[in-house]
Amino acid sequence: MSDAINQQLIDNISIILKKSLSADATLADLREQKKAGFSAIFSKESGFECQANTFQPYVQEVADDLLIWQNGQSQQVLVNLVKKIEKLFQILAQFEQSHQD
């Protein structure tokens, strides 16, 4: 296993986790105000297996994918994992930008 790749994945997932906790708190507030009525953050075609209206299940999925990659070193698992991480970074950045205090 490439230690550099592994560390970068861990670092990125850690950043996503922190951002997602904040975003999920904002989503909870928006739901209380009846301003967040969607059923899933990502569409079924996004590459994620889970469908959720909060970020935490998606973060859990990438963390699980990381463990799978660490155990098998599959190139396809790595490619899919990186794509999911990129999508999470993009949507979290868009969410943060549109819901800044």
Outline of this structure?
This protein has 101 residues and is mostly helical.
Explained architecture:
With 101 residues, this protein is mainly α. It has one domain (3-98). The protein is built from 3 helices and no strands. It has helices at 3-32, 56-72, 75-98. Helix 1 (3-32) packs parallel to helix 3 (75-98) and helix 2 packs antiparallel against helix 3. The mean pLDDT is 92.
Unreliably modeled segments = none
Tally of separate domains: 1
Q: What distance lies between the first and last C-alpha atoms, to the nearest angstrom?
A: 42 Å
Question: Which percent bin holds the helix content?
Answer: over 70%
Binned strand content: under 5%
**Strand count, sense and closure of the main sheet?**
none
What is the number of helices?
A: 3
Radius of gyration: 14 Å
- The general outline is elongated
How confident overall, as mean pLDDT? 92
Main attributes?
101 residues; mainly alpha; 0% strand; elongated
Topology diagram in text:
Layout: H1 3-32, H2 56-72, H3 75-98
